[in-house]
């Protein structure tokens, strides 16, 4: 896949390096030449440019890019202007970084539905979300092995874990399932609550809206989620 990441601070650079190492084509952009030079050997392409300049930005290969991530963190104004510019250019998928709740409200008003909170989420988790379909969350155990939570793919709804042959076909283990249930408070308000169903068995039936928690080598997890 092809990515453009704007802002090569700690989060943006880490994400760009991680995605590049996984075999993706990444264009890393920053207006600081020192940062661009520092990462040119670790990211597929690096460019020094002003991401708020519409003329310059429109020269990027946007039609061939799958995901644009605005990772600017130091300058909220530049973040908002850059996000609005890429939104107007109608890129395929736009993700932006929010610094605080007010900033998030502004991004939402612009029409951005995928927002990153680097203080709470790591670059490794976002790399998995971007590279693997249906990933809800992930926990990296080492460079090669992870535990991930995925939404149940439609073709597996109604089937048992035994029937989908995770271990035999993909060399991964099903650990548990999580069900979203509606809980009412004493004042009658409803909220969704995640309930872990215990250790998964071969007879566990995968239901619509369930979350499946699986463990395995990253390459096998990616093969399963992107099939």
TrEMBL record:
| Record-linked InterPro entries | NAD(P)-bd_dom_sf (IPR036291), RCK_C (IPR006037), RCK_C_sf (IPR036721), RCK_N (IPR003148), Trk_Ktr_HKT_K-transport (IPR050721)
SUPFAM superfamilies given in the database record: NAD(P)-binding Rossmann-fold domains, TrkA C-terminal domain-like
Q: Which Pfam family, an example, fits this chain? A: TrkA_C
Kindly list the biological process annotations in GO that this record carries: potassium ion transport
The record places domain RCK C-terminal at 134-227
List, alphabetically, the Gene3D superfamilies matched.
NAD(P)-binding Rossmann-like Domain (3.40.50.720), Regulator of K+ conductance, C-terminal domain (3.30.70.1450)
In this chain the RCK N-terminal domain maps to 1-116
Which GO terms fall under molecular function for this chain's record? monoatomic cation transmembrane transporter activity
Record's protein name: Potassium transporter TrkA
Q: Which organism is it from?
A: Polaribacter gangjinensis
């Amino acid at each position: 896949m092809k990515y453009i990441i704007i802002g090569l601070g700690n989060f943006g650079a880490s994400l760009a390096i991680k995605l590049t190492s996984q075999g993706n084509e990444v264009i890393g952009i920053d207006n600081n030449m020192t940062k661009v030079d520092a990462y040119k050997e670790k990211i597929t392409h690096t460019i020094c440019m002003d991401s708020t300049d519409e003329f310059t930005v429109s020269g990027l290969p946007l039609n061939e890019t799958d995901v644009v991530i605005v990772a600017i963190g130091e300058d909220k104004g530049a973040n908002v202007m850059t996000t609005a510019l890429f939104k107007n250019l109608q890129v395929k998928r736009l993700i932006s970084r929010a610094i605080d709740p007010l900033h998030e409200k502004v991004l939402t008003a612009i029409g951005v539905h995928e927002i990153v909170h680097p203080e709470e989420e790591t670059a490794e988790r976002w790399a998995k979300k971007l590279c693997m379909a249906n990933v809800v969350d992930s926990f990296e155990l080492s460079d090669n092995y992870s535990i991930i939570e995925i939404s149940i793919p439609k073709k597996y709804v109604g089937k048992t874990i035994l029937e989908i042959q995770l271990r035999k076909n993909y060399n991964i283990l099903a650990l548990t399932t999580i069900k979203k249930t509606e809980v009412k408070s004493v004042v009658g308000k409803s909220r969704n609550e995640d309930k872990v169903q215990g250790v998964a068995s071969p007879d566990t039936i995968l239901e619509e809206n369930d979350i499946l928690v699986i463990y395995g080598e990253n390459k096998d997890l990616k093969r399963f989620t992107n099939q």
